[in-house]
């Protein structure tokens, strides 16, 4: 008998109900396949808590997330397929030492690896439900609005990742954003290459199902022509991206000849966008809008977005998200007027539908509120972004507050410098800007890391001149580049965020006296 995916979700819920207790945390560490989505929904349907772990993590990172969430078991695969090759996922999971693993085969009906005694195959796990009457039926477990359904984690770029509980309210918030800003509705086909281990996985899933849209899942790398053809053949109407992925498509010309005209809008998040790249992406669907969104796992949503109801400018945001409010703070912590062009750290208004009010392994008050100024009788919520409001009222993310540089007594952001340098020469794929203080003290020095396009080569000294000219003519004539380093690729988190801290540490190590011995 062949069951629909809806019926399998009910079978999963029955098997979870028979194996675990209500409220138990159960992890998922596998690619975002149809089975992964079914498992995620089945866990929640049964009144348990899904723990999201990205399939790219090393065993140590998996173990940390299992420990913090107190997960009773983990769903995973025997292998991951990449480029036609098999890479073991189960062995990494076993190294993390979970209590129990339920293992799915990457292909076929049987797992291709020997399991531990306490672990079971997917087939064996589903058979547990068959021992129950009416295994294809399940009554949902109703829980309070503030009960946890999902534990997600911050990127963990500094120290232990924050364990962020999503409640019953979180899906309502993120799916409402998709409806209000991206016009996602019944009949749409929504695709965003991601993973349940990152916030966009649950966001896309709930946005589709609560708005009546179809979720499109691609198994494989989104960086090549195969993904582009999938978008064409699946009739995707809303496509989510990250800027570095768009840059890869543009650089490789892998989408040439494909028909993406069914796409009514694009969405992008994760890092600062490039206006030229967004223009190129828009051209692939008769210049449909590219809507920016920026938020956080702890917000269940974006706090600033683009909107189909407003004129849009590439690489910018046009409005606060629905129910969200914010102010831009000056260096003294005072809000700028809402109609004033300015640059400063953002402060979120604390009454925010869907935002967390606790963390599992950190002090929520200390992380998000301590030290923030008061505004209209309420303490602002910390987010950490530096925002620029243009004369026309558009918003541009200038990077994180901790990525701000002080060059010759003038504060600027890494992102602002990178935007200028990315366009300094046709050979440049992407840049990363950091600043470090000299060993003997003194003003911070501006250092540029560069990734060149494949067909180009350059001398660092020539790039140094090009970058200095671009920065001085577009930003400030007093800024100058101290030196340039060409690298093959940038260090990034598993969610594709640039790790400037790692680049900064590399430079400090190279400049240290010990490294010269």
Structural write-up:
- It is a single chain.
- This protein has 517 residues and is of the alpha/beta class.
- It contains 14 helices and 27 strands.
- The strands form 7 sheets. A 7-stranded mixed beta sheet has the order 7-6-3-1-2-8-9, with helices on both faces.
- Strand 25 and strand 26 form a beta hairpin.
- Helix 1 crosses helix 5 and helix 6 crosses helix 7.
- The longest helix is centred in the N-terminal third of the chain and has 15 residues.
- This is Probable acyl-activating enzyme 18, peroxisomal isoform X4.
Characteristics:
517 residues; alpha/beta; 29% helix; 25% strand; globular; transmembrane
Describe the protein's topology:
Layout: H1 5-19, E1 25-29, H2 34-45, E2 49-52, H3 59-69, E3 73-77, E4 79-82, E5 85-88, H4 90-95, E6 101-104, E7 120-121, H5 122-130, E8 148-153, E9 163-167, H6 169-182, E10 189-191, H7 200-211, E11 214-215, H8 225-234, E12 238-241, H9 243-252, E13 265-268, H10 275-283, E14 290-296, E15 301-305, E16 319-320, E17 326-329, E18 342-348, H11 364-368, E19 374-375, E20 378-379, E21 381-389, E22 395-400, E23 404-407, E24 410-413, H12 414-422, E25 428-436, E26 445-452, H13 460-474, E27 481-486, H14 500-511
Parallel strand pairs: 1-2, 1-3, 2-8, 3-6, 6-7, 10-11, 10-12, 12-13, 13-14, 26-27
Antiparallel strand pairs: 4-5, 8-9, 14-15, 15-16, 17-18, 18-21, 19-20, 21-22, 23-24, 25-26
Helix pairs in contact: 1-2, 1-5, 6-7, 9-10
Keywords: Membrane, Transmembrane, Transmembrane helix
InterPro entries: AMP-bd_C_sf, AMP-binding_CS, AMP-dep_synth/lig_dom, ANL_N_sf
Transmembrane segments: 34-57
